[in-house]
Amino acid sequence: MLLNKAVSKGSRRAMVFLAEMYMSGEEIPRDVQKGIRYFTRAANAGDVYAMNRLAIST
Fold first, then answer.
1. pLDDT-derived band of residue 58, with 50, 70 and 90 as boundaries?
2. Considering the chain, what is the average pLDDT of its residues?
3. Distance between terminal CA atoms of the chain?
4. What is the DSSP secondary structure assignment for residue 11, as one 8-state letter?
5. How far apart are CA 50 and CA 11, in angstroms?
6. Which residue has the higher pLDDT, 3 or 34?
7. What are 8-34's pLDDT values in tens digits?
8. pLDDT score at 3
9. Which of 16, 26, 35, 57 is an S-S bond match for 22, by CB 3.0 to 4.6 Å?
């Protein structure tokens, strides 16, 4: 998947997009744990939106 490649290169936007996909189950099977994992990676990289989503999700 192209998103995984972008995530491996450190794209915070790709991490957030993939996290949203896992959380909602759109285009891929729903997996809340993976969604939280990708939000956490993005938040640790400084993404404010991901930080907010983690605060809401947990």
1. low
2. 93
3. 27
4. -
5. 13
6. 34
7. 999 999 999 999 999 999 889 999 999
8. 84
9. 35
Cβ atoms of residues 58 and 46 within 8 Å: no
Number of Cα atoms under 13 Å in the Cβ half of residue 9: 8
CA–CA dist 46, 3 (Å, integer): 19
Amino acid identity of residue 23, one-letter, is M
Residue owning tokens 């972008």: 6
- Nearest Cα neighbor of 21 from 3, 47, 8 is 3
Neighbours of 13 (CB within 10 A): 14
Report pTM.
0.89
